[in-house]
Amino acid sequence: MTDISMNTVTTPNPATAAASGIPPPTRFSLWRWLWSDKRALVSLAYIVLLVAAAVLAPVIAPYEPNQQNLMDMLAPPSAEHWLGTDDLGRDTLSRLMHGSYNALYAAGLAVGIGVLIGVPMGVFIGFVGGWVDEVGSRIIDGVLAFPPIVLAVAVTGALGIGLTNAMIAVGFAFAPVLARTMRAQTLVVKNALYVEAAVGFGASRLHLIVRHIIPNAIQPVIVEITLMLAVALLAEAGLSFLSLGVQPPESSWGGMLARAYHYVEVAPEQMYAPGFAILFTALAFNTLGESIRVLLDPTVKKN
Amino acid sequence: MYGIPGMVARRLVQLVPVMIVATFVVFSLVYLMPGDPAVTIAGDYATEERVEEIRRIYGFDRPMLVQYFAWLGNVVIGDLGRSLFSNESVLTLILARLPHTILLVVYALIVGAVIGIPLGILAATRQGTTLDKIITSVASLGVAVPNFWLGILLVTLFSLNYRWFPATGATSFFEEPAKALYFATLPAIALSTGVVAVLARQVRSALLEVLGSQYIRTLRAKGLSSGSILWKHGLRNVAATMLTIAGLQVNRLFSSAVIVEAVFAIPGVGNLISYSALNKDFPVVQGVALVLVLVVIFTNLIVDVLNAIFDPRVAAST
Questions:
Q1: DSSP string of B107-136?
Q2: How do residues B59-108 score in pLDDT, each as one tens digit?
Q3: Predicted ipTM?
Q4: Which residues of B touch A155 (CB under 8 A)?
Q5: How many helices (H) and strands (E) does chain A have?
Q6: Is the pTM of this model over 0.95?
Q7: I want to staple B29 with a disulfide (CB 3.0 to 4.6 A). Which of A158, A256, A264, B74 is the partner?
């Protein structure tokens, strides 16, 4: 994500920069950006930590996530169990760490599917134009009307229950959003003077798409992708809460909330940790997305 | 054709391909089913005749497009099939539950507008102050908070601790409107956070843009008070933005409603579709997906028409 943004920033188009009289940009430094934008710094640091916790969970989690201890059920936070235990005596912190893997996997899967379908489709229909664009745009409108979770539930109802099936469906619902953005950007770039010049110099279609259209159109897409990670994460939590996502005994934040809700009158503190995990992670993706938007678009002023 | 009727007519024509795509997606869900869909739809204890009957109804032996139009023909006359469990008509099941979901979504939109719009106005008129920053931060939380978790927290606080609101359930709005609203209050608040956030942000930026424009500067120079400028000119321009956002939010609200309904045990279509998905009651799942996508499409049509009524330029340009 940051790699792509660095590319687009360090290789601005000289033609547009010269034409609009913008001084040549200085080399982009990730550190300088993060230092000047503390929200982005905190969000990125949180996400890096979360990824580390997710990947290293089997090594660093204090307990096995499914290790039951029926002598120690719904225990409040203590020295042995920092976040307490659930209704089967399983360590909440360990389950939270293992659940973060599922959350990130689900978000990455849905957004990945959305990108794989949406980006090429948007570039294609925008580039070809004519009736292809007409038909493509109607398909975009039609799929865009689906509430993502409704589509995900419907697909699990047909294909079978499971996290992967549900998140592929969420990705399918994301695709038209990206396709629409990509199409609009492609249309703008396609008609730009420097692209016309490239055509005049005999640039091939593939060269135009790979070297000019995609690098210029990708900026708003990067922002959208970051914001979508938050939406996908919330969708995973919700679907797992309905037991249509991650299947027990595997741990997920949404599933942990579903169990905690059953015992809310006995152990109300059990519903805080998973809820805050979802909230903070979604907040981190959103904040990072907004920061990248400001970084990539100099006309957006910071609040 | 010109004016509002012409615009509605054009929009309806434009809707045809969109509805074909949406219905085709719902129809093609049947192809995702593993194995012989006729056997799956018929259920575990179906007789051989029942499987044959389903195969005939769905026309699984015919080409896909023929099947689609046959299915669409049934949909148009209101035949969405029967539940595999209760054998009830899917349309009857949905129509009995849809009012609960619509009430929840509309109520959430209203709660969102009642909280979000004043926050946006407040932030815009106090731009750059601490209050503005607090409102902007609250808006960030509003999009990130899982609605169903907020629902659980509201139940714990206001139902279990204070006993101000019922924890779960719903009553019919048509029979006991006051009681239905009472039951729907906590769920609607839980569902409204996204609307609050988006409205607060958009109203703020739309208002800042209008208040900074040339004609407002002219009005100010002519000696109009800030109050009357805000109410007479600023907010009228914001109305269109709010309508459009409400239209866009409907889609997300139905998404979140599916989960919020589970928290509050509301017998709406959200609970119907998740329950049916868990129990592999495919015709019901397909029916709910179809009805909800059509509701979203028509809501956006209504939003477009209302926008055109408020702003004649919209009708002329589309």
A1: HHHHHHHHHHHHHHHHHHHTTTSHHHHHHH
A2: 777 888 888 998 899 999 999 988 988 889 999 999 999 999 999 999 99
A3: 0.89
A4: 29, 32
A5: 13, 0
A6: no
A7: A158
